[in-house]
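Section 5.1 Outputs to date
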Amino acid sequence: MENAAHLRAHDDKWLIKRWRILTRRAGWKMEKIAGSGDFPIHAIESPGGTGPRLYLSSGIHGDEPAAPEALLTWCERRADALKHCKLLIFPCLNPWGLRHNVRSDAQGLDLNRCYHRRDVPVVQAQKNFIGQREFDAAVMLHEDFDARGIYLYEIPGPRPHWGEDLLAAAARHIPHEPRAKVEGRRCVGGVIRVRVTPETMPEHPEAFYLRFGRSPRSLTIETPSEFSMTARVAAHGAVLDAIMRNLKKDGYFSELSKF
């Protein structure tokens, strides 16, 4: 049975209200960076310490409600363990789409294909807010209506790669994607790992923008929309936990002792 929050998964106002409660409790900062009227776009920062610098985002596609719910649920559960991390969180990049259960924004744009542009206000505001910051890992939470299991995109970076380990962590909630190809790309055990250039994908997604010059690791996690909301939220949370454990292996030992 889905819990009350899951039943309100397209209620963007309820989502942000819960984020405000969390940020006050955790001592994080939340501010509006874009949007107008009924659909503001927020960024959340933690003061952090000597732990890893982590970029997290969700809700860029409004018809993928488990992603923003999972990000909030995980941060609610892990706030104390994250106190040494330097977080930058975009909790819902497309609140209009979330409320209306559509992929695009109010102008009909797929925001996740606009990071090469300078004329999309939400994307430009987000890029201006990020500025010259760098991160140890950047994670984008998504969903896929056609998926038969959880899968991820990992733009190749430092070795060892993380993809297989992350999906193994999610396996008790959702099995990995069985298809050998997803959107024309080779998929092995749920991992799509392909070197990308502006020529191979001229319409840049958020993951491109974060990978090149800002984070050595850029991961896009996709849960299958046809699974239960509970399973999808749990699978995203398991992946995020596994990311923190991998950061711990990279040298953030004392700061991530609770993972």
